[in-house]
Design brief:
By secondary structure, the protein is of the alpha/beta class. It has 33 helices and 23 strands. Its cofactor is Zn(2+).
Amino acid sequence: MAALAAGNFLTKLFGSKNERVLKRLYPVVDAVNTLEPKYSAMSDADLAAQTPLLKSRYQQGESLEDLLPDAFAVVREASWRTLEMRHFDMQILGGIVLHQGNIAEMKTGEGKTLVATLAIYLNALTGKGAHVVTVNDYLARRDAEWMGKIYRFLGMSVGNIVHGMNDQERKEGYACDITYGTNNEFGFDYLRDNMKFDKESLVQRELHFAIVDEVDSILIDEARTPLIISGPAEKSTHLYYQVNSIVPHLKPEEHYTVDEKAKSVTLTEAGVAMAEQQLQVENLYDPKNIELLHHVNQALKAHALFTRDVDYIIKDNQVIIVDEFTGRLMPGRRYSEGLHQALEAKENVKIENENQTLATITFQNFFRMYDKLSGMTGTADTEAAEFKKIYDLDVVIIPTNEPMIREDYPDAIYMTKKEKYDAAIEEIIELNRVGRPVLVGTVSIDVSEYLSDLLKKRGVAHNVLNAKNHEAEAEIIANAGQKGVVTISTNMAGRGTDIVLGDGVVELGGLHILGTERHESRRIDNQLRGRSGRQGDPGSSRFYLSLEDDLLRIFGGERISGIMNRMGMNEGEPIEHKMISRAIENAQRKVEAHNFDIRKQLLDFDDVMNQQREVIYRQRQQALSDDSLRPVILEMIEEKAEQIAWTYAEEKTPPADWDLKTLSDAVFRQFNFKIDLSAGRLEGLDADVLARRIADEAKAAYQEKEKMLPEEEFRHLERIVMLQTVDSLWKDHLLSMDHLKEGIGLRSYAQQDPLMVYKREAFAMFQEMIDRIKEETLKILFRIQIAPSAEVDDLVQPEEQEMSFSHGSGEAAAKKPHKRQAAKVGRNDPCPCGSGKKYKKCCGK
């Protein structure tokens, strides 16, 4: 207690850390203000001419910090002339924070979209490109067009990257000085670029500077779900139906237990016996039944943990995921590892084939690749520790331009959900009667529809904004502040769109926020509250809760229930007490800490994968950019020659006693020629001399192969073969890494650290894959038969492969065919796999 008192005293004396940071920045704001008369006196042409002047100063060695006051003052003046919007001082402050690579926390309605223009323009002066990352295509288009007027006035090019664009359109978008787009599109383009077969088709430039809008949503909420590009893996769907049919025979508690906190389902011994009986297998845990066991676990999850119209809906005979954070539908996105198919079997809709991962990355690792990253949101302070630890981003809270006068009432807590909803409806009706607009926040689609039905019965006109009609969300949310309007909205639908109060609403008390349940994260609750009280407007908020709500039931219901029972609560009577609200906040803190631990652990494991991905992608980029891979191929030849020599030429054994046949076969398997190991050629041989002889003969054979095509075409062939080999083995490696990660937790039972074991085994697997890449590349190059020149053009014609873009564990983007290029082999040519058979009778069947 004494330490706390001392801390409070020091804060009063010296100010909080946030206040000290802002104090250092105010002189920069003054410098920008001082320049305002200079630029406001310029003609449009003179103002626009400042961009090349600022670029020139940068190229001559001035830092962006030196250019900041001029650049910000230029943008402010251009904004006034094009949009009639002038950055106020707090927005200038926010722009400085963003330029410095921090997160600016600014309340809803403080004009974050305009703030971004300052830092984006300044950093775009480098000519390396600057990105603004938004949460959906609508905002990317809107902001690129709206804010683009400022940039275009100042002579900068503006592009945007949205779903459905072709590669050429994307390339043009990224080539612009300033590019708006969604987190998904930026991430998937990075992965796609690392699957391309020529550098001209790459769309992205280097990742220089990015401002992430709604940074908490993208870097925290979506951090647990990696972006995945996958291709179809042929598997029968019969097993899903078979396993689904046995789940109704399994009873909760008797056959399986559910852990709602960990969101997991576990079979009991009786459950294992019942499953074995139903599936007619002797031992479900026999290694040969491991796939069957996986299907049983996923089917159990689908039935016990996933609820229709909460986690997903059925639309057009498909299972469509509902984003738990925004309440939006995510068509085309699929849960991974067979869970989506298990849900399709549960709902008796058509089961789509599983996909195999071709490329993957988490948002955490993607955004950490930018040279400089910053972000903005209305709610980041509660996650400040995570932003610092994971991304090395400091959160700076920007004061509001006008004082915040919204009144946040204590939570009203009832015994049952029915009492809670009845009370909420009465408050909505009362406020609607006097004309105050009300925004009702719900955590799921079914609750929004339940409340809508109750209001219909009471004759109250209202709008429902949930995943089923998100197309109209911007319009609905923009009108939510008009007199007498009632809007029911799931969670955070409509983020990025301001609610402006209509005529006469200020006098009535402004917009009232009514929350029908607390979210696991305080930040999400604060986002809902933040819809009201913008720019000094009046407003109010209240959350209606019940002891039956998941958060209270799972994380603190007994304690709160005990307090309510001791107070002798009657049916329909709420309790409003700050002690109860604090208990709920403590429950939320526990969940937030638990979720942070999960994200941190996932990142620790993904960091291993990320290091490997960087090595592979670097290899691919080198293969695309180098004029010739010949030096790399010759180095591979020497390395494989040494491996063969040291494997079969025993150090202390005379050459005549070596296993010459096996040695000769190994050389043939790798290089497709027979080495002369007759008696006269063995004298003076040791492993080193043998390695040089194999390498020299292999190089000579390769030189002959090179003569069969013009040099440029042969170099192109080398590139295609190497890239194909890398992609094929990398895809298999991703699958192996998934399997390794799945079972690694069990190592803790053997007193081993799962992460250390994972790192060690993953490294060994990676080394093995690198060796296989070299081996397979050489095998194909030494065996490939060169087609007649008329067919050479066909050699690298792209083959179309269906790909889908998704978030792992469930949140993802739509399916769309993309072309991948593959080297063609003639039907009568030797098979590139090295079997010695003709292609048509081997892999080309």
